[in-house]
Amino acid sequence: MTLKITMPGEQSGSTFSQLRLFLCFLMYCWVLADPVCGYFLKNCTIRGNLSDPSNMKVLCEKRNLEVVPKDIPRKVSVLNVAMNNISKIGKLDFKGLSNLKILNMSRNQISSVDDGSLSHLEALQELGLAHNRLTILSDHLFQGLANLSLLHLDNNLITTISSSSFQPLSSLKTVNLTKNNLHNMKEVQPIVQLPHLQELYIGSNRFTSFQSQEISNTSIELRLLDLSRNPLGIFRITADVLPYLEVLDIAYCGQLGHMEWDVLDRSFLSNVKRLNLSGIEMSLERMGMVLQTVNSSLVHLRLYDISEERVKALTDIACHIPTLSLLRLHHNNISVLSKEFLQSCKQLTEMDVCDNNINQLSELLFRSMEQLSTLKLGHNRLSSMPKATRNLPTLKILDLSFNIIHELGCPDFANLTGLTQLFLFHNQISNLPECVFQDLKELRILKLGSNKILTLNDAFMSGLPKLEYLSMSYNKLSSISKGDFKGLASLKTLLLFDNQIASLEDGAFEGLVNLTELRLQSNKITQTDIRNTVLTGLPLLRTLDISCNYITYVNDDKLDPPPFSHLTSLENLQIHSQRHKGLCHLPINFLEGLKSLLAFKAGNLNIKDLHPNTFIHTPRLWYLDVSKNEFTALTPKLFHPTPRLNRMYLSKARLQSLDFLVGANLSRVTFLQVSKNDITVVNETVFRSLPALTYLDMQDNPFTCGCSDAWFVQWMESDNQTQIVGAGEFTCNYPADLKDTKLLDVELQFCIVHLGLYYYISTTCLVLLTLIASFAYHFLKWQVIYGYYLFLAFLYDTKQRNKLTPHGCQYDAFISYNAHDEPWVLRELLPELEGEQGWKLCLHHRDFQPGKPIIDNIMDGIYGSRKTICVISHRYLESEWCSREIQVASFRLFDEQKDVLILVFLEEIPTHQLSPYHRMRKLVKRRTYLSWPRAGEQTGVFWQQLRLALETKDGSAEENPILSGVQAL
Ligand SMILES: *[C@@H]1O[C@H](CO)[C@@H](O)[C@H](O)[C@H]1NC(C)=O
Ligand SMILES: *[C@@H]1O[C@H](CO)[C@@H](O)[C@H](O)[C@H]1NC(C)=O
Ligand SMILES: *[C@@H]1O[C@H](CO)[C@@H](O)[C@H](O)[C@H]1NC(C)=O
Fold first, then answer.
1. Distance of CA 664 to CAs 592, 613, 621, 639, 652, Å?
2. d(Cα 894, Cα 919) in Å, to the nearest integer?
3. What span is annotated as the signal peptide, if there is one (predicted)?
4. To bridge 804 with a disulfide, which of 29, 86, 599, 863 should be the other Cys (CB 3.0-4.6 Å)?
5. Which protein residue has the closest C-alpha to ligand 1 atom 1?
6. Using CA atoms, how far apart are residues 383 and 190, in angstroms rounded to an integer?
7. Beta bridge partners of 14
8. Is the dihedral of CA 604, 605, 607, 610 positive or negative?
9. DSSP labels, 304-320
């Protein structure tokens, strides 16, 4: 049993809740009709375009994800969920991503992958599962990945590889299983048997032996085998299973004891070109055997961490291999490179002895290497330029970086006429003699960064005719004088950042006619150095970076002359982050002359205002970064001269609204970043004025989360052209009770639905009403008309009653009749009642005041008479009964409980014909009416009764003796 508690007003309450239910239903229909297809991902960013799936990337790395996001667009071709906390891959995680080519899940906590969860990825070519917690590769793990060619499984805990798990990977070329817990070479067997496998990385596992019969009986395709850092006790090849092997890495093997080398036939490894024997625990004698095995093919030998003694012996053996051309000897603590060391290495083209302790080189060391083209001596302890590196006309690349060289002398690079690249960065060089580079006629790249150079000393006034790239960053230059780079006519890139440059002379860069890139950031340059007489003679300059200096302006007044007026080719200007105070003001004509400018980076400058004419000189501007300033507001006029603007960075600029984008002529903007501002509300017109927008970053704004944001929310969820970055993280700031709630979690649909729903409901109601009305009219015509007049009468009655408070009545009776019955009224009724009985009657054709509205006349007539006599005939019922006056009178009759109405039936009317006229029927039923006698009958009684009826004073009709039961039809 249910106990029902009845509350007062429950009746209306339940009606209300029914109404609500109905409204909800209507809204549900409305919402269903509106397809929601959001173009933002809660935890990821999309690169590329939704409409061009071939290069669409979805990037979700480093978001603390615990599961694979559910809202990945189906057409994605690259998906990166690396560096999260995902521990499990579910069966449906990648469902439908049939276009995916690259999937990176590295650096998570994945320990389990459901069977078949990757089988949806038919197109996958590269799969990253490195740095996870996988222990077993099960039978069905890689099911369906027939196109996979690259598989990263390194840095897991894999101990077991099921025998059929790799079977589906018929296109696999490369597998990385480095750093796992594999110990049995048999586990690897199914992998090496794959028809296209070329590279197998199984270093840093627990293999204790490598025996060819464990992996195959027949020859396999493998080109690269990395076995490094396994505790291999033996490397044994008893059959020619690796005929194509080119790269063999057995570095740091044999750590559990000296490693055996047992290759039955020297022809078994006859294709090996690259060999890494670094740090191997193996007797010198056996290492010699290894080298003998590959002595017909070896090109590239790496011998790190071998110790100085052994490396000398091995170098000697290796250099007898005629094919050897590259020798790398890092980490061998070599301090002196003597002539004997490299005696037999005549054929080498590259010698790499970086990362040793070399402080001495015998003078003629490299003289015998007549093909030497690359010499790497970086990360050693050379304190001066070695003589050994002079007079090597074949040398092309010389690397002396990370030494402790103090000075350069004029003969130091003598006769290096073929040198194209010289690396001297990270030394202690403080001087540059004028003649030092004079022989380097072919030099293209010179890196002198991170030294202690104080002045340029005319070093670049002549020589170096082909130099294209000069880096002098991180030095101690304090000024650039006129013509300092005069000799560098081919120079394209000049890097002078991170010096102490505080003064630029007029003509400082003259002669650099081919310079395209000049970087002067992080110096001590001030606004006085930024003159058009300094920045001249650079006809091809495309990039100028003067950020992080001390440039500042006290107002935005015109500069005369404008600083960049000669840089007509400049495309990219960076002045952001001026130190100390910031630029503060951007002079109106600061950019004058930069007619090619495409990108302007002027963030972090403490600018409060931009003059509307700031960009009138830069019509091609494409990229604008004025983030981290103090604008609060910008004017649309600012952007009128830049119709090509495409990318706008305006984050952290204290903007309070985006209204300046409206009418700003920004139809080509595709990228807008306005994160970290004070924007509370975004309205529709803003995005209407950015029709090309595809990327919007509005993170960290204090959203209001009221109905004013409803449009924005709806737009975010439905627009599929613009990606809204981090939309899921937009947070409310107001109202207080929603603070820190996510904007998308706030129920704002009601606001947006409001208008639409309103239209929807009203249209529905209108349609329903029309339907009902036409039905009613068709089937219940008279009832409807009657009802209508009844309603109007009610209104009038109410009105008249207020207006006409009872005063003396003007007439005894108001006669209501149909025009067809007028003859009877004039011939019979009028003479009898006015002539014989002496009543005063009100007849509309006679007594209505001309000029007064007819309805008022009628009302006055009825309310000014004691009684109303209705002369009823068929015609009367069809027209007058429904008319207002009669209804008003009947209202008066019932409401005032007064007997004002006298019905006189001229004809016989059957009851059923009366049925539409509800009140009339009620009266007739109560027999309160008079009938005009039929033809030939006496009229005396009728007139008598009528007189009595007219004589009756006000009172209840029920009590009236005359009208109660006097006559019957
Ligand atoms: C986004 O990441 C959070 C935290 O891991 C998670 O709770 C939420 O479900 C993710 N959203 C989607 C759509 O995957
Ligand atoms: C294989 O994995 C190791 C260890 O993570 C890494 O150092 C190496 O670069 C990887 N090699 C390739 C080809 O991916
Ligand atoms: C440069 O080479 C020439 C010709 O071989 C030789 O005469 C000259 O001494 C060399 N210069 C230096 C500084 O070694």
1. 21, 13, 14, 5, 20
2. 9
3. 1-33
4. 863
5. 43
6. 54
7. none
8. negative
9. -SS-HHHHHHHHHHHTT
- Any ligand 2 atom below 6 A from CB of 176: yes
The 10s digit of each residue's pLDDT in 274-328 is 999 999 999 999 999 999 999 999 999 999 999 888 999 999 999 999 999 999 9
Distance 725 CA to ligand 1 centre (A): 14
pTM for this prediction: 0.74
pLDDT digits (tens, 9 = 90+) for 393-444: 999 999 999 999 999 999 999 999 999 999 999 999 999 999 999 999 999 9
Mean pLDDT, rounded, of the chain: 86
d(CA 231, CA 64): 37
What type of residue is 325?
S
Strands, E, within 418-481: which ranges? Answer: 421-423, 445-447, 469-471, 479-480
**Sign of the alpha-carbon dihedral angle for 139, 145, 150, 155:** negative
CB hemisphere CA count around 714 (13 angstroms): 19
**CA-closest residue to ligand 1 atom 12:** 69
414 Cα: distance to centroid of ligand 3 (angstroms): 7
Please say whether the dihedral angle defined by the alpha carbons of residues 889, 891, 895 and 897, taken in this order, is positive or negative: positive
| Ligand approaching nearest to the C-alpha of 387 | 3
CB 201 near ligand 2, within 6 Å:
yes
Contact 405, 384 (CB under 8 A): yes
In the numeric block, the tokens 């990253």 are attached to 128
**543-545 and 517-519 strand pairing:** parallel
Distance 66 CA to ligand 2 centre (A): 25
The terminus-to-terminus CA distance of the chain in angstroms comes to 57
Distance 155 CA to ligand 2 centre (A): 9
Other beta carbons within 10 Å of 522? 21
Number of H helices, E strands in the chain: 18, 45
Measured CA to CA, the distance from residue 236 to residue 795 in angstroms comes to: 112
Q: In 636-699, where do the E strands start and end? A: 647-649, 671-673, 695-697
The CA 438 to ligand 3 mean position distance, Å, reads 13
Ligand nearest to the CA of 411: 3
Nearest atom in ligand 2 to the alpha carbon of residue 131 is 5
The ligand whose atoms approach the alpha carbon of 728 most closely is 1
Contacts (Cβ under 8 Å, ≥6 apart) of 412: 385, 389, 390, 436
- CA dihedral of 548, 553, 559, 560, whole degrees rounded to 10: -90
